[in-house]
Amino acid sequence: MASEAIDPKITVDRESEGEEEEEEEEEEVEESWDDWRAGEGEDDEWAPVASVVCLFCTEQFDSSELLFDHCRLEHCFDFYGVVKNSGLDFYGSLKLVNYIRSQVSQNKCWSCDQAFKCDQDMLNHLHVTNTCFKKDTKFPWDNDFYLKPYLEDDSLLHSLSMDDEDDENGNGDVADVKLVDRKEFINQVNVPNLEKLEDQFGKFMENGVSEEKGEENNLKVVRHGAAARERKEVDEDYFGSYSSFGIHREMLGDKVRMDAYRNALLNNRSLLNGAVVLDVGCGTGILSLFAAQAGASKVVSVEASKKMATVATQIAKDNGAEVITVVHSMVEDIEKKMQIEPKSFDILVSEWMGYCLLYESMLSSVLYARDHYLKPGGAILPDTATIFGAEFGKGGTSMPFWEDVYGFNMSSVGKELVQDAARIPIVDTIDPLDIITDSVVLHSFDLVTMQQDDMDFTSTIELHLKPSQMMDHLNWCHGLVLWFDTDFTARFCKENPTILSTSPFGPKTHWAQTILTLREPIAMCSENGRSVISTLSSKEIGTEKCPVATVRIRVSIARASHRSIVVSLEATGLGFDGKKKNWPVQIFNL
């Protein structure tokens, strides 16, 4: 359902305000970037003004080092000690930070879960209670739910990095967490995120967050208030964007999408005949029209965009579909708009998928509708979804284009774009000839049984060169490409099971694929190629002189905020002689 679109809020009126407003905006941008510059002294160093917020109080600091010193001295919390004694890796450290923020917002002790009436009681308790968790125990934060940042754009999370030196040297499994330097941090944060971060902290201050320690206007109230406002703003922007007919033209023109839903609804008439159907996010109402055409006795079409709800109502009327009732509402609020019985629908249908399946998706709304309005044993269309992954070669990057532009070498531009792509996912189609490994399943969802928290997951996959690539002596892995299938399985579509696939090996769709580029390409070869290359064990693994046989990738996808996701990628190269190398974790904001 998600698609790139022109912001509908940009109207003719705004354009008519002229260049004066644009000049003011440019001045604001320049001022904000000036705030990020340290005084241009001898070191000419860059340092972010965006503060990191204490885990336990409202204090803010210019660096994570200062923050953790403060936590150790004022709150008896030794972050590095807990990480080391608990044997936490990079992901475990992220979970720990988000878990503590979640506990503190509820006035609960992070270590013993004791609840308190106020912030001060909790802080006093921390001074006398400092439990240190040991290895090989079940930690309360050991849940993929805590991969999701508790604070939007939490600067502290961006400053964590994994040190793999111990693992490389075989000195143990404990991974130290270190801080990246300031220049590297600045280079890894893109401008929109900085502006969003500055704006968010501005909102915090407007709502009474004091820089004074111990102020009763505690941070948790502001967190929840800001989160609620942001959620509302995101919903308004999201559903407002779908009032653009251009988006609906693109989706209705997606033949793969339309054929899959049409086949599932029209060619399973025993399922649809006489059924009561709920269409979540109906848009133009095309799926509702299919359902009515297939013999549904009643169709309730829910649409959060006011404009599109009006359009869908008119389209249903124009086509004589009297069984369709269009409701302008989010499905979570539908009972405010119409009287509806719980567990009263036979079929729940929705085209909820976004880029990389989960970005800007409506899956949470579909699960809400399932739990509140679908009859026991009722059908969900589609009822399963699967994310796939494979590695791609140099052709999947922009490098080949820039290496020869009308005979001129512009590869410096391509290299810069590749570095940008190592932070920000690219949504684009990829040529199947550029895929160098077999495709594997990253994660699967069963919409009948899954819960909301299952949308956050971590999976580890191993990728090997596909047979067609084994003829080449050497291949370079430049990144991971993701796509998804959604299935209308025989569980409900007994007459005509159908698959909607966004695979690069099939016809193109408006979802395309999601491309995650590695900062550093990894050399791979097959067993046959190894004998030709004569790999040298003394060379660094993953290089031309010592390519790997297998690339193991650990991928985590978590909802970073409302309708947004964060993808983390950790690559490990496995050599022919048992050697391995871990590359630094990369985090992509989508």
Automatic annotation (TrEMBL):
Compositional bias (Acidic residues): 16-33
A matching Pfam family: Methyltransf_25
Record key words, sorted: Methyltransferase, S-adenosyl-L-methionine, Transferase
Name this protein carries in UniProt: Protein arginine N-methyltransferase 1
Source organism, top-level taxon: Eukaryota
Signal peptide: none
Record-linked InterPro entries: Arg_MeTrfase, Methyltransf_25, PRMT_dom, SAM-dependent_MTases_sf, ZN622/Rei1/Reh1_Znf-C2H2, Znf_C2H2_sf, Znf_C2H2_type
Start and end residues of each stretch annotated as Disordered: 1-36
Single GO biological process annotation from the record: methylation
Gene Ontology molecular functions: histone methyltransferase activity; protein-arginine omega-N asymmetric methyltransferase activity
Catalysis: reaction(s): L-arginyl-[protein] + S-adenosyl-L-methionine = N(omega)-methyl-L-arginyl-[protein] + S-adenosyl-L-homocysteine + H(+); L-arginyl-[protein] + 2 S-adenosyl-L-methionine = N(omega),N(omega)-dimethyl-L-arginyl-[protein] + 2 S-adenosyl-L-homocysteine + 2 H(+)
C2H2-type domain segment(s): 54-75
GO CC terms in record: nucleus
Biased composition (Basic and acidic residues): 1-15
Keyword Transferase tagged: yes
PROSITE patterns hit by this protein: SAM_MT_PRMT, ZINC_FINGER_C2H2_1
